[in-house]
Amino acid sequence: MHNLIDFLQRHSHWLLFIFLEVISLVLLFQYNSYQGSVWFTSANTVAGKFDDWSASVESFFTLDKVNQELTQRNLYLEQQVKKLSDRLGDVSKDTTWTDTAGVRLLKSFRLIPAKVVSNSVSRPGNLITIDKGSADGVRKDMGVACGSGVVGIVYLTSPHYSIVIPAINTKSNISCSIHGRGYFGYLHWMGGDPQIAYVEEVPRHARFRLYDAIETSGFSSVFPPGILVGKVLHVYNSVDGVSYRLQVKLSTNFSRLRDVCVIDNAPVLERLNILRAAQDSLKTNTDK
């Protein structure tokens, strides 16, 4: 307290000067219209700049959420574009297409947004770690995708993290089809360029063109049909000569991967479990 009093006494003339200046400015701007308008305009400009800066800061810290929402929305739009393209190419005059199972498929799975915590692109056994786990509903063998296409399949989970085997892992094996052609094969990555993979076992009688889109076939419980994988760059004969081998440029840029979605396709998993149970039952009865 003594120090405060001593400070006020030593600087009393400056404090009095500041007090009188404030009083004079208040009187000046309050009772003079021109000076008041100048003050009002300047104050609004400063306040506007501050609000703009505050909004920019807030926008920056919400970019993560925006990116997650965009990733999820892109997956939905990708599915919708595929269904619309298929219908536009159909010569039938069926006007009830919006109620078909293909479009209802969009509502049959849940997307769990996640962020890539760690990633590698230069190893044969590339792995991706995401920040969602069993506590968030992530389970083993769920598909993972991003706004530009397929990412991989969940391999291991903990309560808050999961390990994903990406398409650029030499052990990855994803069922794919050629868009609009009806032919399918299996996507494999041979190492090297993280943008190039191959679709194996495409039938010799298949008809397609270079740059045709490759997408998920939907023949497994991992991915619904129609999620983009890449486009055909080149066609080779298989080693045994009985099928084609397609070189594919992957649509997903794994070196810049950040926001992804885990696909919870519960209805398909349920149907698959029922089918497996039926097959096991039939096998047991046959063995007897």
UniProtKB/TrEMBL annotation:
Record keywords, A-Z: Cell shape, Membrane, Transmembrane, Transmembrane helix
Segments forming a coiled coil: none
Gene Ontology CC: one annotated term: plasma membrane
Transmembrane residue ranges: 12-31
Domain Rod shape-determining protein MreC beta-barrel core: 116-263
Single Gene Ontology BP annotation: regulation of cell shape
One Pfam assignment: MreC
Top-level lineage group: Bacteria
PANTHER family per UniProt: CELL SHAPE-DETERMINING PROTEIN MREC
Family statement: Belongs to the MreC family.
Full protein name: Cell shape-determining protein MreC
Species of the source: Hallella multisaccharivorax DSM 17128
